[in-house]
Amino acid sequence: MATATPTQQQASRRKAPTGYRDDTRLALLFILPALIGFAVFMIWPTLRGIYLSFTKFNLLTPPKFNGLDNYIRMVQDPVFWNALKVTLYYVVLNIGLQTVLALVIAVMMQRLTQKTWLRGIVLTPYLVSNVVAAMVFLWILDYQLGIGNTILAGLGLDRLPFLSSDTWVIPTIALINVWRHVGYTALLIFAGLQLIPETVYEAGKIDGASEVRMFRSITIPLLRPILSLVLIITVVGSFQVFDTVAIATRGGPVDSSRVLQFYIYDVAFGRFQFGYASAMSVALLAVLVVITFVQYRLTRAESSDLA
Amino acid sequence: MTSLRHRIQAAAVAAALAIGALTACSGGGGGSANGPIEYWLWDSAQQPGYQKCADAFQQQNPGLKIHISQYGWDAYWSKLTAGFIADTAPDVFTDHLSKFAQYVDLKVLRPLDDLGPTSDISDGDYQQGLAELWKGQDGKRYGAPKDWDTIAIFYNNAALKAAGVDPSELQNLNWNPTDGGTFEKLVAHLTIDTKGRRGDEAGFDKAHVKTHGLASEGSGGGGWGQTQWSAFAGSAGWQATDKNPWGSRFNLDKPELQNTLSWYFGLVRKGYMPSYEEIGGANAVGTDKQIQSGTAALGLSGSWMISTFTKLTDAAGKKLDIGLAPTPIGPSGKRASMFNGLADSVTTLSKQPENAAKWVKFLSGAECQNIIGQSGVVFPARPAGTDLAIAYNKNERKLDVTPFTQQVKDKTTFLFPVTTNAADIAALMAPRFDAVYIGSSPISSLNKLNNQLNDLFKVAQ
Q1: Per-residue confidence band for B85, with pLDDT thresholds at 50, 70 and 90
Q2: Which of A180, B20, B161, B308 is the most buried (most CB within 10 A)?
Q3: Which chain A residues are closer than 8 Å to B82 by Cβ?
Q4: Cα B120–Cα B124–Cα B126 angle in degrees, nearest 5
Q5: pLDDT in tens, A265-301
Q6: pLDDT of A235
Q7: Candidate from B15, B278, B282 with C-beta closest to A249
Q8: Cβ contacts (< 8 Å) between B79 and chain A: which residues?
Q9: Looking at the 3D structure of chain A, how many domains does it have?
């Protein structure tokens, strides 16, 4: 049944006017540069990374095949499992806060103000590089010398070891990155909001719906495809948190901010165990594929309610 | 479609990390056959001295040029690693004992015996024991000694005066793991809480300390407690490994160490030493800055820090009066200091190894080491150079550096533990020692760590 229609369609397409084939060639020609880049910089490294995950490799001498050794070690490595746990905790905090905040900012930009400069300001933290942001916050939040703690002390509160206590470190890093990314996420959502026809809101107003009600019954449902796309992109990015950790905490205190990407980096470039690092990278790939697939399905990202 | 592409992209980025990151790390360094000899070091304080050496070398060797690059300690090693991979490594670089074994295993260092100019380097020209440290397990020499360092106490004279302590008292301190001895008494007395009460006075508030008696440079797990607890553990008779260099069994489970650490980290619980949180965890503020900012009165640090300490100023720009005292005498009845040294190594990536070796020979020779000695930044590996550095400190800085040199004379030093698998050891040790410092793991957790370290060598064999 299901195959019948496409076959018929293809059959009918074959009868299309001559010149169609030329179009395909031209199209391929246009796609080619991107395709080459994709193959060289994406597909080949991925395949090679997967191959290296089955080897013992220090990068300077040729890799030695060692079967499933790296994967067996990974399953038995408590630091790996802790890294996975820490990363998940970070992603939940980071994405949860960031998405809610970005949504609020986007809706305010859409419904309350039309000023371009105000919209621009929201984006400014995104212009700061991750490394610079991490270093600035490292100083602001320093226990003894940071202005953040000086203010806390000035208010008569106890100083907080933001980046050097296992309780605060992940929430602090998550907030630093929310600060940096929320504007960009808000902008993506804002673009989605522009797609919702004004007429729907006018109809809502005529029916006497409040802003909150319209947000719940119009904005959210119609924004769903965009929102799910934004979530997929930001979750994938969030899982790869690295620079903030590398600059501000180097995985500490103990292992409480040793996120997966940082652990992989440390094992590879600090300890020259590129085979094991590749195995963990493959695990991260698998986790991301599963999470993205689930997100895609749960949010029905491929269909819109607008039509 | 869009999300599918992103999915594949993201997935590919994740899996490609190991390879992709390499292409990003290039630039810097990179010797060629005709270009200048590329030389790297990490200590900016030492650069002017070595520039003078380079100038002298260039004068004596027309046609050869030296280009010196300086990168801070952390960036230095990652840049070097990237350089080995991307073929942009320098011809010659300053090497550290904690790193060179790994580089020998990775076959990126040239044995100096195989290069003409450096083939006749003699162990006897240097302070005893220094040159032998740089021989690999194959018996070949991989580094030419350039300097040495020991550990001593740096103190702020103003803090001592305010506490009514005579500086001469510090020259004969002792400690033990039970009550801390005169060292702990001193540290307690130098500690002041926010209400001005001293650590040994009634009502002292250990939770709100303004000045700690003793500074802290972290848990020391990444470098065998060199500027933290090594002087104490050493004076309790502890050795890190079964033999040194090239030990393969570890002694972290021994009571000498565990009692020492229990006492040492116990100072945090008493308020005499800052906690892990206070010093900023992984990005610990150095002893110099703690003394400068008045959050600590004294601290243990290495001889390479002399010039930094003597340049310290207070908020008004006035120079601090910094004094030196030897590490305290421990339960063994002797003092102890870790004895460490740096050397210059030639990389296998060098396109002009013979020229590079000429430069290394010059760096390890009398002329350059005398220049370095006269700059007073470090103690050169040759005894004559050391004497010049001692004289410089006495005349120019009015500083008696005997606390550093006496330990070498009295043979109360012990060597930095040189092992293979050093990067793995540091990666395993650092978090576990942090946990002990923080107090989230008991000292006895080091037993398990010790087994893990021993296992590293079982796997390797």
Answers
A1: confident
A2: A180
A3: 269
A4: 100
A5: 999 988 889 999 999 999 999 999 999 899 888 887 6
A6: 93
A7: B282
A8: none
A9: 1
